[in-house]
Structure formats: structure tokens, C-alpha cells
Amino acid sequence: MGVMQFAKPVAVGVDGSAVSMDAVRWAAHAAALHDTDLDIIYAVEGVSAPMVEYSVPANYFDRARASAETVLAEARAVAESEGPDTPQVRTHIQQDSARKALLTWSENSSLIVVGASGSGRVSSALLGSVASAVTTHAPCPAVVIRDQVLERPDTGLITVGIDGSPSSLRALEFAVDEAVLRSAALDLVSIWDSTGFDYTDTGYAAARPEIERRLGEKAEEIHAQHPDLVVGADVLEESPVDVLTKASSVSDLVVVGSRGHGGFTGLLLGSTSQKLLYHTQSPLMIVRD
Prior knowledge:
Shape: elongated
Mean pLDDT: 84
Strand content: 15-25%
Largest sheet: 10 strands, mixed
Low-confidence stretches: 118-127, 262-272
């Protein structure tokens, strides 16, 4: 596992809220680390026909564009301050729903970053439903930044959830890269689900050590390729969301696959997904296979 060079830009959605500027800060730093460009996107929602007919002022879009340009100017200043080594910072106004705009941009990005809450305006690119849609459907890895998670001091630790699925192994590749680029330690976490086992069963006695052995081998493999990287491995017997939420309190970044099997089955589906997205205390990266 070598450090991947991002061939495409990093993209980030903004709406003027504080958390959107935090997302810009994180994205600019990531773009600088990966030596790639940064695209900052502001979505201006279209107006339905009934609204146009009855209530929308003629200068609605002029005002919306002026507001977008003000926000983008602030976002550019934040990006250039946070990531002065970023090759190029570009700003874009997209006339579309935030959901569609960001999913469209994700098709030509190496990484897309959004906040988990927003200003509540129609044009908000960072409402929870949009963050959920982007993390579920974006073809590139997506990073979610929650309010105030960047205010905590760095811990120098990145955590990745592993269950052996293609999605989680892809997540591991990104986690290794981020740890190397950020000079952070890496913790591999897997879940041992003992549901259905009799504690006296020989299958129970053999299963957990086997998971620990495989995870340990993966940690050793990574360390052999990156001798300066401190790599840990933990097998825990709790729900995946509880484990990763706790891990996020001591991590600079938590990385997970978008789908998995075994202990992480359904990790990012339905209410489980929402719980992790809105309770993580660190940036959360979700990687598709």
C-alpha cells in the first residue's frame, strides 16, 4: 500500500454556515497534502413553476448569485489561508439542488467534503439530507465535517473500520495514505459479533482469535511497507457505531467503507448511518469499493 496521488481535484460544498467553512478548511488542507486542486461549490436551488408564477421576485437569481459570490470569496480566503500550497483554488456557482450539484462534482473529484449541518437556506449545500446523499451515492470518497469537530486539538491518530469486505479494504488504503501524509498513527478496528454463539462452543473459542490473527497480519503488512508508521489493531465486542463513535473522540479522522459484511454490515444504511454521521466527533471519511 503506497501513498496514492490524487489525479483529480478535491471538491467541497459551501453555503456560508460556520460548518461549511470548517469543511473548506479541511478540504484545503487535504488538497495541499495530496498536491491537487480544490473546487469550492455553492449550489443555488432552482425554483418550481408555481413559485415562479406567484411569488418569486424578478431579481431573485441576481440576489442569489450575489450572495453566492460573497460566500465563495470568503471560502476562497479560508482555503488559501489553510492550504497555501494547494496548486489551484477554484470557485463555482451551480444552479441546481445541492444534492445534485455535489453528486455531479463528485464524479470528477478524488474526494468530496461536506458539512453535516447548514444554514437552513434553500441554497444550503450542507443540510443533513445532502450529506447523507453524498456519502451514500458519491463515486469518490466523501468526508463529512460536523460542527466544531475541528476545534479540538489534533490527536495524531487515524482510525479505520475493517471487516474484510472490498469496501473496507478500499477504506484501509485511504486510511494508510492519510496517516502517512499526516504523520499520524493508524488504528485498525474490527468488530467481533458473538451473537448466536454459545460461549462454551468451540466455534466461539476459535472465531475471535482468527479475527485477531487476520487483523494483526494486516497491521504487520502495513508496517512493513511503511516502517515509520505506528500501526495498532483492535478487535472489539460492541456495535460498530458505538465503537467508531468512541474512536472518533480520540482520532483526527475515522475512515469506513460504504458497505460491508460481518461486524460492519449495514454500517452506513438507514438510521445507523445517520447516527454515525451526526455523532462522530472527528471528520468521517466514507469510501466506496
